[in-house]
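Each lists chain and fold; for instance:
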Amino acid sequence: MIEVVIAGAGPNGLMLACELALAGVRPVVLERLTEPTDTQRANGLVGQVIRMLDRRGLYERLATPGTTPTPAPRFTFGAFPLDLSDLPDNPLYTLLVPQLRIERMLTERAAELGVDIRRGHEVIGLTQGEKSVTVELREGAPIEAEFLVGADGGRSTVRKLTGIDFPGVTSDDSVSRTGHVSVPADLIGPDGSLTVPGFGAIPPFQHLRTEHGLIAWAPSPDGDPKLTTVEWGQPPEGEASLDELRAGARRVLGTDITLDPPTGPGPHLMRRLFGGNTRIAERYRAGRVLLLGDAAHVHSAIGGPGLNLGLQDAVNLGWKLAAEVRGHAAEGLLDTYESERHPAARRVAMHTQAQSLLIQPGGEVTALRELFGELLDQPATRQHIAGLLAGADITYDMGPATGPLVGHWAPDLPGLRDLTRTARPLLLDPTATLDPGPWSPHVDTAPAPGLDTALLLRPDCYIAWQGTTNDGLHEALATWFRAA
């Protein structure tokens, strides 16, 4: 019998597969598509997941060799420029890299770890038993597994087959158009901004709101730039086309904009989307079936929070599910996946809905923006929003353990990125005197020169305990791991 089957070979499913493999579980990934898609989606990564990838040794596969993550000096929120350069603790990181490249990297890493990825395998049914779940496929024999994880997107078949409700709201009053384009070189500024005669500069990777809609300009180091417009109350105009995108930009800006067909090798994107959904699964687990990523939550893409949320879901679930399969899990451990990650999804839903309101046209929204702009002049407000966008404001209930760092994601400490690549629990002990006792086989111990307190890190890098003596250490270990 297979230990874990993952439905969906997108970034979230692949990340989960890698985390399981690091913990000694060899999952099988089932993907409906016979070949990887060439549809370009996300432009990059935003948030704490960038540092998490660095702690797994994966950041260097996406970024310039020899570099490490650095905070972004600026970002955007609700079509406001968000200056982060003066923050004493800037938690917001960005990495400009196409999603297709992220998927390729995770596919390669999964293969290195021995993960079995089976393409052309579509899940059409499932039956749960006391100790297993049987997965039915459109073609081929059923597969029996101890657990099934649905990482199969917002229209998740696994979620529907399991009968998990997907409550939320749907809006249908907006039209978003996005396409790859080319523009005259003399219109591109040294900072990557696009100059529009009769209007001015459109800064790169920002949302620019006017009284008639929204526009966003995204130059790419790997290919053609993308232009996006969002309008309200505009009816469909046949097939999505460059002419339609050009006309939308004219309405938003009030002047013509020079847009030509893309010149790069592609694949090229030209799409139109209507409205949007904000939905969170009623529960993340039903028996031996769990949901991950977009199968568990969908929301506006504004601000690019999707991969940050979904990949961190995978890192949270991976070690817990592996511990359950391997018999190392403390009682109730797997249920903490939902109790910890469901609130994270609610916060993303909250701030993307707020941003979606702030970008709309109209005098009332303009007045709201005027007030919100005054609030953004305060560093404390920008610090709060940076933590919200990064997902760095999340803290977890660690049971009996106490201390100012308990429940928080571990800060960047010297050597930590090398110690966390194995995805094992880690005890940083500056005293060299702490004893994990019967949990020793499950916990790596390392010196921590410069620290004034010992820290117990879960595999997802959240701090489960801190102290200077053994007091409370065994209780904390028992909360998360079963003694050997």
Notes: The chain has a mean pLDDT of 94. The chain is about 25% helix and 25% strand. The two ends are 24 Å apart (CA to CA).
